[in-house]
Design goal:
This protein has 367 residues and is of the alpha/beta class. The chain folds into three domains: 134 residues, Rossmann fold (3-Layer(aba) Sandwich); 91 residues, Roll (Ubiquitin-like (UB roll)), CATH 3.10.20; 99 residues, Up-down Bundle (de novo design (two linked rop proteins)), CATH 1.20.1440. Helices cover 41% and strands 13% of the residues. It is built from 14 helices and nine strands. A five-stranded mixed sheet has the order 6-5-9-7-8. The chain has a two-stranded parallel ribbon with strand order 1-2. A two-stranded antiparallel sheet has the order 3-4. The chain is globular and about 75 Å long. It starts with 10 loop residues before the first helix and ends in a 32-residue tail after the last helix.
Length: 367
């Protein structure tokens, strides 16, 4: 799974562009272990670097007899191909991915049956991220004890951090699990940009959490981050300075999630639309009494009734932003001001499934 539709993540692309053979080796090992005959590398259409490098690596592996019939006289046959998807964030969900491979619209399947019993073309299938499969060759070469000696608690091995935002050295970093977010910002990112102070951290992609400056002691640990109301997810960490408005950032995250909802289940389709409508009202200084409680009610329905993680996690960014930046929301709702002024700027809003939606321009009254 190299769909990687998260705008803040680029670890899978980094692996495929730099060393696609390590993925092919991991995929080949997984195929041998499970008795599979075919492997598929699922890449987002338009990511030409990963696509070209992976296709060339597959060609080279076939020429060397590493892929194909009776590999090295073992009697094991295995082939790998690249499958492309359109620009759909939900296509990264494992059952929606299988639908896309079969040439259908990328929409999650109902479960059961699960992919291990009924997957691509009705065959038992196993889906993993690029990073997970790329670990396999080194783990087999050096042993499980070597891998588990890296990291902390239940979060062993390394993390690939996609660092962006208001830091001096944004980029892609592979680090041991267990580093603190403070170490990520200062040691990897080179600290905050000149004359800027840390205000927030957005982790785990658009469905992840928004953390405050007091969260920098949190470690890159799946359980610890989950307990803090965030996720590590795709590995994306966006660093925001005192120039970032938490309400405006939340609006952008929810707008992305609403636009990318596949629309198959109504808790997500309607819930995302309602959440975005409310957050837009707040950011436009047009909030109504009860908006905060209404968002929590809609979010609870989405969590319990949505078909896949897109809807189930859709309220997460709002919940964490309200928890850590209640003052930003209060200023918008009660005093009708934005602490950074960013909400006074024109806003382009998704209209694909919201024909009534209007872009926001300060001083212009929407109908």
């Amino acid at each position: 799974n190299c769909e990687e539709g998260d705008p803040g993540a680029f670890n899978d692309k980094g692996i495929l562009e730099s060393d696609p053979h390590t993925l092919l080796e991991g995929l080949l090992i997984a195929g041998y272990a499970t008795g599979a005959s075919n492997g598929i590398v699922f890449i987002r259409h338009g990511h030409d670097g990963p696509i070209n490098r992976t296709e060339e690596a597959i060609k080279q592996a076939k020429e060397l007899g590493i892929l194909g019939k009776d590999i090295f006289g073992s009697g094991f046959d295995f082939d790998i191909e690249v499958s492309l998807t359109g620009e759909s964030y939900v296509a990264g969900e494992e059952t929606a991915l299988m639908e896309a491979v079969e040439g259908k619209r990328s929409m999650p399947r109902y479960r059961p049956p699960f992919p291990a019993a009924f997957g691509v073309w009705g065959k038992p299938s196993n889906i993993n991220n690029v990073k997970s499969l790329s670990y396999a060759p080194e783990i087999i070469s050096k042993g499980a004890d070597w891998f588990s000696s890296i990291g902390v608690n239940k979060s062993t091995g390394t993390a690939i951090v996609c660092l962006s935002g208001d830091v001096n050295q944004p980029g892609l970093y592979e680090v041991p699990m267990g580093l603190t977010l403070q170490q990520v910002i200062n040691d990897l990112g080179g600290g905050m940009k000149k004359d800027q102070t840390l205000k927030l951290l957005q982790t785990g992609g658009p469905l992840g959490g928004v953390l405050g400056p007091d969260s920098t002691d949190i470690h890159i640990d799946f359980d610890e981050m989950r307990a803090a109301g965030a996720i590590f997810g795709s590995g994306g960490i966006i660093v925001g300075s005192n120039k970032v408005c938490a309400v405006d950032l939340t609006r952008i995250l929810v707008a992305f999630c609403q636009f990318e909802s596949c629309g198959k289940c109504f808790p997500c389709r309607l819930g995302m639309e309602h959440l975005l409508e409310i957050v837009e009202r707040i950011s436009n200084f047009e909030s109504q009494p009860g908006d905060m409680d209404l968002m929590k009610s809609v979010g609870g329905t989405m969590e319990s009734g949505s078909l896949c993680g897109h809807g189930q996690l859709g309220f997460g960014p709002i919940r964490s932003a309200i928890t850590h930046f209640e003052e930003d929301f209060r200023l918008h709702i009660e005093e009708k001001i934005c602490p950074t002024g960013s909400c006074n700027n024109p806003k382009i809003v998704p209209k694909n499934t919201r024909p009534y939606a209007q872009d926001f321009v300060a001083g212009v009254k929407n109908d």
